[in-house]
Amino acid sequence: MPQPNPFKPVVLCLSGHDPSGGAGLQADIEALMAQGCHAAPAVTALTVQNTVDVTDFRVLDRDWVLAQANAVLGDMPVSAVKLGMLGSVEMVDTVIELMQANPALPLVCDPVLRAGGGGSLGKEDVGFALRERLLPLALIATPNLPEARILAELPEGSADECAAKLLPYCQNLLITGGHGDEADIHNRLYCKDGSQHDFTCARLPGSYHGSGCTLASALSGRLALGEELVGAVRSALDYTWRTLRDAEQPGHGQYVPRRLPLDFCS
Ligand SMILES: Nc1ncnc2c1ncn2[C@@H]1O[C@H](COP(=O)(O)OP(=O)(O)OP(=O)(O)O)[C@@H](O)[C@H]1O
Ligand SMILES: Cc1ncc(CO)c(N)n1
């Protein structure tokens, strides 16, 4: 009879579903499995999208999301929580309620507002609600630069300028640099203690679907395993880069990260 592995950390994921399988909950499950963690995927929203575009989305009722999360929390020893697409201000407030009832859990918040292809994944005002009420509860937020600009309300802001505006709202902030056309990608980690860490990697050719989900999930897994923050960010970025290096193009649009277990990545 199969025995449960008592040492595999559980990460509760509250994210949207992407039927193409490149982003959202499927990305969370694959990336967490690759870190040696168990993903408990709770659905916040359904989307109609593929590797080319998003055409629609529907946010679930708050009661359904609370019921899913509480079913997991009442059953398993959850070590961390990862947030992806929330989609509405009501869902932001639902997650806040959940986190206030479970304040000891480390929270990784990927403030998803748009898909990699540009389509909207949130109703208006989600950015404001995220910044004002949810970011303060997160151990770390992982916006890409366009998301950081929306959250900071600085449409032309640099990463440093956005961080200066956002740090009063969050403990730690990782502004990712996948968007843009510089030869190198600069990922910048700003910590509450005033330290800053730059992680630079070579830009791979092409455009990727679910790179941000992969990164935030891998990071939540590294934290659930007990890694300290800066090391966990480094491991998650390294892992994400390898999944993009090995990415495949299953459709007509963006490449999908190949989220192999760590043992299979060189
Ligand atoms: N072209 C690329 N080459 C190398 N690494 C990349 C590339 N694009 C993204 N990455 C890596 O993936 C991480 C997350 O990507 P990005 O900043 O594009 O997030 P995102 O826009 O939230 O992704 P998505 O919306 O597709 O989930 C980056 O921090 C970077 O390290
Ligand atoms: C459901 C979902 N979450 C996040 C993203 C961001 O990549 C996406 N495209 N779809």
From TrEMBL:
It comes from the Bacteria. Keywords: Kinase, Transferase. This is hydroxymethylpyrimidine kinase. It comes from Halopseudomonas sabulinigri. Residues 18-254 form the Pyridoxamine kinase/Phosphomethylpyrimidine kinase domain. The keyword Ribosomal protein does not apply. Pathway: Cofactor biosynthesis; thiamine diphosphate biosynthesis. Its EC number is 2.7.1.49. One of its GO terms (molecular function) is kinase activity.
